[in-house]
Structures are given as structure tokens and as C-alpha cells.
Amino acid sequence: MCAGGPKKRKIVVVTGTRCPIISLALVLFAPNLPAASVAEQRDFFEMRVRPVLAKNCFTCHTASRMGGLEMTSRATLLKGGKSGAAVTPGDPDKSLLIQAVAQTHERLKMPPQGKLADKEIADLREWIRDGAVWPESAAAPAGTGYVITPEQRAYWAFQPVRKPEPPAVKDKTWPRGPIDRFILARLEEKGLKPVRTADKHTLIRRATLDLTGLPPLPAEVDAFLRDTSKDAFAKVIDRLLASPRYGERWGRYWLDVARYSDDKLNSTKDEPLPNSFRYRDWVIRAFNEDMPYDVFVKAQIAGDLLPEKDPGKYEPGLAFYANSPEFQDDRVDVTTRGFLGLTVACAQCHDHKFDPIPTQDYYSLLGIFKSTEYHEIPLAPESEVAAFKKHKKQVDDQEAAIKDFLHAQATGLSEILAARTAQYLKAAARLDQPKADAKAIAAAEGLDAETLERWSTYLKKPKKEHPFLPAKDPEEFQSFLLAVNKEKKRIDDQNHIRLGGSNERRDLSRADLLSLARDKYFLWRDIFGETGVLYYGDKKIDRFLQGEWKSHLESMRASLEELKKTQPPQFPFLHAIQDVKKPSNMHVLLRGSADSPGEEAPRRFLAILSPAERKPFTRGSGRLELAEAIADPNNPLTARVMVNRIWQRHFGQGLVRTPSNFGQLGDRPRHPELLDYLAARFVENQWSIKAMHREIMLSAAYALSAGASARNFALDPENRLVWRANRRRLDAEALRDSLLFVSGNLDLKPGGQAEQLTPENRRRTVYGFISRRKLDGMLALFDFPSPNNTSEQRLSTNVPLQRLFFMNSPLVADQAKALAARLRGEDTARIDEAYRLLFSRAPTKQEMALGLQFLRQGDDAWPQYAQVLLSSNEFSFVQ
């Protein structure tokens, strides 16, 4: 993702489509979105795929080539092992690798310690779907001899920010300030001229949508049109920046970077985070209060270590890390992309191939976060917290006791059943006869019918599906199986002691694999493991329990239910982090493998952004020192990255078009002097984001129309030189909010618990429930970013599904009815009011005539007419 982050393909669900035939056609024939570029695929591999393979696969499938499979290149994966090719590029479902790690294959279940995390499997699936790109020239991990060359240090992004003098220009009448002189100088250099200035209707609508995500009220437009003073637009900007709607709009942009969500990443069940909204509300408040950006940065990295001890001041910002996606450590990535515009996580397995970031730097930063742990900061009286924790411990202890009891009984039962293996194997052979009845055979032999059927199913698999089943007669196999189980139990006891009493299954399983012969381990897993032939877990084992054992289990379950009924509600708290008691450095993991530690990586800042003599961080984990290094005004990246994000949201593209990647594979600034000027002004103005808005929006460049110029287009078709305004579609949030706003239905209640975006929910979209598991259908349709990764900018797709949404969505139909009911007077007055509400202008004569002609159909025509207006491009776009 060193090219600015892979553009994800999306599967979107259209809700509210009234015609089932259309719905089916949309699913079957919707155009494919463009695949990620080769560079993006390569970097996705380095960031998301290679680390997973290194952690889980390389130990057994590099030099040792277990199962005949070598995982050192794309070619070796395609060649595969004894079971065939490991991957089928373009088709994850047919790829043995996916079947193995998801443990859906009958025999291949890798890694031995258990199924991979859902996010890891999803990343592998995406990688294979996009062609399974595997860079062939990965460098070996660097040692302490890594040297940053003068050429690397001379790269533009690593140069100190200097405030350049605005250049001289020929046209003295157009510029309104320094920003315009930088823009005009480049245009004049190319022989180009800016297009005309936008009219006042367009300008106030653009500014209001930009800063609040809502269209202006007709009264606000009228007041601006009447104000002929020189500072009329400045007064509009100041009013909008003072509105609480501003923080709701611009806070949401930061939530994209922070990969904010209201639940955990879980593919099997919903796991909401009822207190996650406190971070979202803190971000909105920080923007509304114009918290200095350097403080905003420090609060999210080390808010608990700042002098201010008010728990509502800075500590809510710690959810930037505490609300990370489950099962992945993306903290280095989100920190460096979000604040610095660098893809440091690309150096996890080897030195960064393009930027001066050695692998050691990655582990220096990771050591800071590994010396940090999740922490909850209570927002309730101590007595209430203590009572809840005491009761929760009772619930947890009871659940653990039930689990331990069931596991003990299941283990004992499996040993009892294993002692009769020979009988089960002989009986299973009889089931191959025509019309054989498992229940009858089991009853005749005094066996358990379900266990007999399990054995029969297992033995019917082709030999290659269980190659570790020895070709012995039943009695010999029974003895062998019992011996394997005994050896496994002995190794478990040894590992339990060696691992300091840990019962963590992945650790024990890793130790098992290293201690027990591979064929024995897989045989034990197939027979005695938690999905094995002889293992009966919770509920399944109940029928085997009698007498005191059954009564004991029923009593424990009843006690658990009673405890749950009387459990007090969870007290409010902040999702936060804190330093561990004994912070420590990490070692470089060779090729990203935890089984191959290399040299120690002291906790410290990036070499390219530090003095020659770097000092290790010594205060706790080092988070506060890291925050101070990032927020240092002398850091060449922090201010540049943020002002570029602000410019991007106002102009549709940043001065650097890869906002989270200022490295070699990122975009180069078309206006480097302007970028530095803005960065310098940002720091001069005490890191005020509102001051930066004001300076940018009061420029002549911001006030340009979206008009055409054939000459300009021929020389600069992408408008990199800013000769016109970029016409932009409203994003998902602004679109939904605007629909509700113009109909009079928008509920402006601020903050609080996230709510699902149901038809009954009329609050601003920023307060809607954002799910990592299943994103809302409308948000996905209109390119809302995945909350599982930090997002630098929104994609802007244009697909038929979006048009059909306006035709068929109940949301649009309901707002059209409400809009029609809101309008008062005769048809002429109602049409005029509709245009002023939706488009911030009066209708033309032709538009009025067409509207009146349509409305002659009768009273029922008004909701349809209102829906047509809401579906128009003019309503959905910022001009």
C-alpha cells in the first residue's frame, strides 16, 4: 500500500429496491469495479499478506517444505505440494490455501494451532482474488549497518518546511492573497488563465456543504446576496466555522483516518462497542473547539500522559488505538500513514524498498505499542465500578468452571471411547454393506451409534484425506492411538510448565507441533481434538452424563443464569490504553516471523526524521516521546500532511494526491511551494485548523467556478494547476443528511450512542452505527470507506445502482413526500421554494414551465415531482 493504499473492490447491497427482478439483475450484471494497480497489489502483499504467511506458514513451508509445499515465491505456490497448487489466482474459493487456513477443507487444516483470524483470511482472499502478486526481489532484513544516503535525505518530503515568498505575477487584479499568487504564477508559466469566479449562489452552497455537509437555508442565501460588503463571504465562513455542524462534518473526515467503528470485527456474531461513541464525540468536539492540531495528535497517542488530568479533555482520544480492528496490529500503520504520510508498515518483513525506512525502524515503533496495553477508564463512581467488576468476575469464574468441567468430561469420554476403537472400526466396516443400519449395528455391539457414524464418515474419506492413519489391523491401531494420546498428554504437561502455566491454546499448540511428530499430531487432532471423531463438547456431551455429574453440570448452569440475571449494567467508560508495567524493546523479526528473532530494535523515532544521534525513548513505553516527535513543528511531514488533507477536502484532490503517502511511490506535489507556505502558516497560526480553512476559502482559487476552458483542459486535463473548481458528488453522509434536511426531517441532536441507520433514524449520519462486520448498504453503495483500515480519501464510483437508489429507495421516496408536504402556496410558489431549498437558486423560466406542466397530472404528482428534483445531479453534486 506504499502507493497510497489499495483501492478495495466492494460488494454493495441495495436496500429498498422494489422490483425483485431488477434486484436480481443488479446482483448478476453489476459492472466490476477496477482492480487494484500492480503497485497497490504488491504493497498490499507486503503490508497484509507476507506478515500473515511469515507468522503462520514459513516455519513449515520454506526450507523444510512440509507436505512438499514451499512458500518462497508465487511460482512455488502455483506449483504447490502433494495436495496440488496452493493458490488459484483470481479464485480464492478454489485455493487450497484459503480452504486450509479457514479450516473448511476436510483434511488440510492449517496452521496447526487453529484457524486464522477473520481479518487475516479476508486479506488472503483479497490478495488471491487480485492475482496473488508476490514481489520477487524482497531484500533481506537489515542490520545495524543500514545507511540513509544523501540522495534519500534530499527527497522533498524530508526537507524542512520553509515559508517561501509568494511569487510575482503579471495579473495583479485576480489574486486575493498569497495562495492565489502561487496558483496564478504556475498558470501564467504555462500560458493559462483561471476561469471566471463562481456566482454567489454557487459559492455559498459550496462553502456550506464543504464546512457543514448540509445545504444553506434560503434565508442564509438571501442574506449573502444582499450583503455587498467586501467581507461578505468572510462573514459566511466565520458563521459556518462557528456552527456545531462544522465539527460533525470535519470530525467525520478524521474518523476515516482513524478507522472508527462501533463494533468489533467478528464474522460470526455482532459484538457492539457501546462506549466507542465517546471517541467520535471527542473528535467532533475537538474540531468544533479548534483544538490545536499538535495537541490533537498528542492526545490520541499519549493523552493519558499529558499534564491535563481531566478525563474528558484528552483521554477519550486514546480510542484512536484502543478501538483498533480485532486480530491485527495496525498501530504502526495508522500512526505513520495518518500523521506522517509514510508507509512504515511496509518495512515489517524487510527494509522498505523505496523509502529510507529500515526494518529496525518498524520494530522500534512496534515496540512502543507492544509496551502498551488496552485499558478502560471508568466514568462512574468507584463503588459502582467495584460492584460491577465483582459481579462480572463471578460470572467469568462460573463460565470458566463450566468450560473446564465440560472439557474434563469430554477428554475422559474420548479416552473411554478410544479404548474401544477396534470394536468401532470393525463395526464401521459392516456399514459398507447394503441397507446397513448404524443404530442397529451399534445396539447389537453395545456401541454408541453417533460415535460409530463419526468413525464411518472419517474412514470413508480417501486415503489422501487422512494419510496419517496407519495401515494396521484394528487392535494394533487402537494400541497406537492410545499411545499417541498418552504422549500428547505428557507433552501438554511439559509445555504447561515451560510456558509458565499458560493455557493459551495457540502457544500450547505451537509447542505441541514442535514436540510431537507431525503425523502423530495430526492423527491426535483428527481423533481427540475439539473437532475430532471422539470429542463431544458443550451440549453434545450432556447425553453421556448421569447421576452426580449431570446434576453438578445442571447446578452450575443454573447458577450462571442466575448470576447473569442479577448482573448490574456496565458502567460508562473510555476505551483507552496505558503503558505496561515493564516496557521492553522488540527484536527485529526476520522476514516478519515470530520464530526468527534478530537484533534488538530500541524504542525510538524514525531515523529519517531524527538527528544523526538518535536517543532511545526512556519514559515508559515511549508514547509521549513519540507524540512529541510527531507534533514537533520542525518535523517536515506533520504539518504538510494535515494541510494537504484540508486542501483535498476543499478542492476534491490534494496538492499531493496520495494524502497518506508522501514517500517515493506517492504523488509529487504540483505546487510544492504552496504546500510549504500553507504548512508554515499552519504552525504560525498555532496549528489552528479553522484558521487554515479561512485562509484557503477566502482565496480567489476557492471561489472559481467549475466552468470549462478548452485550452486549459488540453494542457491540464486533471486540473492539477487549479484553473477551475472541481465538480464533486456529495459523499454518503452529506447525501443522506441533505435529503433529510431539505425535507424538514433532520434531527440535529448531537452526540450519544450510535444508532442503526434505519428508516426511523433521522439523525445525522455521523451518529449512525458504523460496523466492521457488515457496513450499512447505503453507505457502501456511495463509497463509504472500510472501517477496518485507515482511509486517506473516498473513492468516487459512478454505477447504475446509485441511480436506481434514487428511484427505488424508501428513504428517497419518504423524503420526497415530506418535501412536497413542506412546500406551501400555489404550484408556482411551491416550485420556487423547492428550488431555493434544494439548489440555493430560483428556477429558470423553462424549469418553471416544465414543473407546472408535470404537476397538471393532479395532486399525486407532487411527491413524484419532488423525488425527481431530489434525484437530480444538481442536488447530489457540489458545483
Give a structural overview.
- There is one protein chain.
- Helices cover 49% and strands 3% of the residues.
- The chain contains 38 helices and six strands.
- The chain has a two-stranded antiparallel ribbon with strand order 1-2.
- The longest helix is centred in the middle third of the chain and has 37 residues, at 382-418.
- The two termini are 32 Å apart.
Short characterization:
Helix content is 49%, strand content 3%.
Which short descriptors sum up this protein?
879 residues; mainly alpha; two-stranded antiparallel sheet; 6 strands; disordered N terminus
Indicate the structural class. mainly alpha
State the helicity in percent bands.
40-55%
Biggest sheet character: 2 strands, antiparallel
Distance between the termini: 32 Å
